[in-house]
Amino acid sequence: MTGKIPVKQPVKQNARERILDVSEKLFANGSFASVSVRSVTAAAGVNLSAVNYYFGSKQGLFQAVYIRRATLMNHERLRLLYETAEKARAEGRDVSLRELIGAMLTPPIFWLCEEKPGFSLYIRFLARAYLEEASDMDHVLRQEVDVFDKFLPYFRKIKPGLSEKDIYWRIHFMMGVMHHTINHLHRISLLSHKSCKSETAAQTRDRLVDFCCDGF
Questions:
Q1: H runs (alpha helix) in the chain
Q2: What CATH architecture is 66-215?
Q3: N or C: which end of the chain has fewer CB within 10 A?
């Protein structure tokens, strides 16, 4: 017995997570075509064959980067939706349009301003992911479609005069506004001749929700 307290060694990040972290950064700053598997494996410090082993292909890797945090974001959207619905029931009222749209838009806007490693970077990646036809994202994005389907009954109750098609169009337009905002938020200063400056996540979210409520 030496009396020394053993030093706890940090848990070493596994190769799969290193590849995802590196890929998220590279894909957030470059196109699907411009990021090579070799550049990913070199930055992650793994063998060239590791991408195929864990993800099957570069396309599979790109999709895995999307799914890893999209799953968390969509869980957060549903958590906010169900908490809002529960609060409304307890107060004897229906969910408001503002609460409903807020549940959809709060996670990406808050992640954009989040200091936690990876979250704001993922938002930059997300904005690019929707434009990358070569990565075959359609079947992966089905996950987000399934989440938005959960919002549909609430929208229909709030706006009974709208058809299901009308509601889906409006969701589509809201997502377009959201993606432009998260991808080009810095441009507001230029657009407004520097009269508009960066605000808190909550202030930016509130402005976006106000706009989408009026549009809806």
A1: 15-29, 37-44, 50-55, 58-90, 97-112, 119-129, 142-158, 164-184, 187-191, 201-215
A2: Orthogonal Bundle (1.10)
A3: N
